[in-house]
Amino acid sequence: MSNNTLFNRTKPPAPEPESPVQFPEWHETQLSNGLKVLIYEEHSIPTVLLKLITKTGSIHDNDLYQLAGFTYTLLTHGTTSRSATQIADEIDFYGATLSSSAGFDKGTVSLNMMTKYLDEGLDLMADVVLNPTFPESELEFVRAQALSRLKASYAEADHLASDAFNKSVYQSHPYGNPSAGTEASLQAIQTADVKAFYEKYAAPNNAFLIVAGDVRIDDIVEKLEARFGAWQPKPVEPVSYPTPSESNANKVTVVHKDGAVQSTIYVGHLGFKRNHPDYIAFSVMNMILGGYFGSRLNLNIREQKGFTYSIHSTLEGNKELGDFYVTVKVRNEVTREAIQEIMTELEKIRSEKVTEAELEAVKQYMTGMFVIRNESPAAIASRLLVTELYDLPKDYNQTYSQKVRAVTSDDVLAVAQKYLHPANAYIVLSGDAKAVAPSLSDFGEVSCLDAMGNKFEG
């Protein structure tokens, strides 16, 4: 008897029934100054992770692109009692990591270290948060690094396509600002700008702190109160921005990269913010479309056509707005055909119900990966961060799997029809405009730009 009579190796095995797994318990409290603290106790490893999140970021840069990035990078570069070198030496001595950075919607200070050195680590973390000096010499160091990264980015196809796509979708909204800044903005940022930015947005009533790992709730709250309790709250004025207009036709943008032999493609449009009520149903639809290896886009464009090694679709849900896109890298010769296949798959998922087999496989995958990705304190901290930053329901993680399992094929079709707009998409790619642009005119009006965003004549 051959093995093939026992096992059909041409088909994956059916998934086993899902085991009930609960999201772990966590505790929420506040310090005397109103700083919200989210605590997850886990004692299997004697380490602890702390993340202080301030509700600000590049969305508040205005015309000084990268101001938030400079500000948060510089927090660990000097305080009233420690130089940048002293901070680095202390962190190395305790075998810890201390980092600070900014994204679209958040500024982060993160500390990860062994529990037995937690007192010393908290002293250092509090010092960089409460007493930064933003030294001029360190600002110049950060500026030089940023200018170097900016220069390198002009040759990176991924960066060129991503920035051009964001600009097309978000227009004058800050989410569309150049991700690495511009030479003019990087040169313009001064110490006074950095200090003013931090003074304006850094406050306990505009922040929250996540603690995950080997701690006891009462003990860590007492330690945090001793270090951060004197941090004074203050008014933080909300800022509003105009909502980008949606396209009423397909628009094609090619960012020229001389001599490129492949195109980095983005196809998409405005989506919705992270706490939208249809986010989970859309996520299920997106997973079927292009969210994992067994997705339609991957089976078509990678497995059947052989155009690429990887293709995926994504809903980027931010705090204020979001965007949906499909992205792929393909050879110049198949650029047009790859875009056409993307459009075909977008139209297909909008026009007919997904099969029950597809839907069940994706729901099993999503609920299974949710469990796997909750296996460490760092992973739980990330879940809590998303829930708090994006104003999700308190029980979001506890009910996530249940809500995924409740999505039907009718729900998938409804969100696809409501939120996917392949006839009004931005088709943005970085590649050799002379080689690929002539073949794209039937998708829509074609504009060619250089790496600086200026019109490219060819």
The strand order across the widest sheet is 1-2-6-3-5-4
Shape: globular
Within CATH, the superfamily of the largest domain carries the name: Metalloenzyme, LuxS/M16 peptidase-like
CATH class of the largest domain: Alpha Beta
Strand content: 15-25%
Distance between the termini: 66 Å
Q: What's the CATH topology name of the largest domain?
A: Cytochrome Bc1 Complex, Chain A, domain 1
**Total helix count?**
16
Overall number of structural domains:
2
Mean pLDDT: 95
Q: Which oligomeric form is depicted?
A: single chain
Strands, count: 12
The radius of gyration computed from the alpha-carbon positions, rounded to a whole number of angstroms, is 24 Å
Structural class: alpha+beta
Unreliable residue runs: none
Helix content: 40-55%
Domain Peptidase M16 N-terminal: 37-182
Domain Peptidase M16 C-terminal: 189-364
Region (Disordered): 1-23
Protein name: Peptidase M16 domain protein
